[in-house]
Every structure is written in structure tokens, then in C-alpha cells.
Amino acid sequence: MLKQVGKSQVDYTLSFQLGEEEGFDFFFRILFPQLCFFANRKLNNMEEAKDIVSAAFIKIWNKHSQFNDAVGIRSYLYQIVRNDCLKFHEKTSKVISRQKEVNYLITTNAIDNIEEDIIRAEFYGELYSAIKTLPPGCRKIFTMLYIEGKTVRETAGELGLAPSTIKTQKARGLAILRKKITPYLYCILVAM
């Protein structure tokens, strides 16, 4: 889901189509975290995922004049990232198990997994945007808990805080986010 910031999506799309940096920056800022999550689900390697997503933005920028709507830009980026992840697997596959994984991704059953991964990426994109609105200390704790997947104990240890402090900040963050995110997203967040 692309969110509007100041100008409308149509304005940013036109800016992107005309080759203006402002349009590129808008789509990069909104879609980069989601696409990285999507690629990392395929690769289990965040650095390689970031490289693939960065390259995808370069590829789409080279064709900027061909896009006249935000959905087209988003869809094309997901397609490039997916295909480049498959290519990465093909290049690095040296054992039979990797070849089976590539074949699995190409099969019809994998389409369901791709759709699930896109939904997860969209979820994490909305969550990432909401977390950025939290106060700095609370934001750091939320990022560690919900984005990095760390436990309360691990988070407390790394930050040198008591687990009760982490739980308090988590509850504070949930209270703030409850007003800023969809009820569905909030329910998923609480269940995590």
C-alpha cells in the first residue's frame, strides 16, 4: 500500500514518469523496506536482498517514462525483485537441494507463497511506517521486538534495561499505534 505524503500519488507518479528525483525518492522511500523484506524471504540474506532491491530501482528508473500509475511501478518492482531472486538462486546453486528450491519457486504452488510474501511485505511496510512515528526510545524497542524478531529478554540485554521496562515501552507503543494503524494490523501486532 502506497501512502500519500503531502502531494498526491498522482503527482509523484507524474514526477517519476518525467524523470524527476522527487518522484523516484517518494517510491524509493515507501517501497524499499517492503521490497527488502520480500527479497529477504526468498534469499535469507538481507545484504543480498538490499542489493537486489537497489538494482531493481535502477532498472525501473531507466524505464521511468513507461510508467503512468503507482500500481504499475509497485507491481513491476515486485516482479523484478522476484525474478532477480530466482536468478540469484540459480547462480549460487551448487547442490541439488538448491536446484529443487528453484524448481519449487517456479511451480504453480509457489504462487500462493509469493502472494503471502507480498501480503507480509505490505504488512511490514505499514508497520515500519507506523513505528517511525513512535518516540525514539519506544521506536528502538519496537524495532527490535517486531522487525528484528528479538525477545523481551534479548532486547533488555542489548539495551541494558530491565525486562519490565521493555514490556512497559511495548505497551506504550501499542497504545500509540492503536490510534494510527488499521484494526486488523493492530490485532496481528498484538498477537505477535
Question: Which SSEs are present, and which pair or pack?
Answer:
Layout: H1 9-17, H2 21-43, H3 46-61, H4 70-92, H5 96-106, H6 109-131, H7 136-147, H8 152-159, H9 163-178, H10 183-191
Helix pairs in contact: 1-2, 2-3, 2-4, 2-6, 3-4, 4-5, 7-9, 8-9
Note the main attributes of this structure.
mainly alpha, Arc Repressor Mutant, subunit A, 2 domains
Description:
- Helix 2 (21-43) packs antiparallel against helix 3 and helix 7 packs across helix 9 (163-178).
- 24% of the residues are buried.
- The protein is an all-alpha fold and 192 residues long.
- The chain has helices spanning 9-17, 21-43, 46-61, 70-92, 96-106, 109-131, 136-147, 152-159, 163-178, 183-191.
- It is built from ten helices and no strands.
- Helices cover 78% and strands 0% of the residues.
- It has two domains: 7-118; 132-192, Orthogonal Bundle (Arc Repressor Mutant, subunit A).
Summarize this entry quickly.
By secondary structure, this protein is mostly helical. 78% of the residues lie in helices and 0% in strands. The longest helix has 23 residues, at 21-43.
Distance between the termini: 21 Å
Number of helices: 10
By helix and strand content, what is the structural category? mainly alpha
Total count of strands: 0
Broad shape:
globular
Determine Rg (CA atoms, Å). Answer: 19 Å
Q: Helix share of residues?
A: over 70%
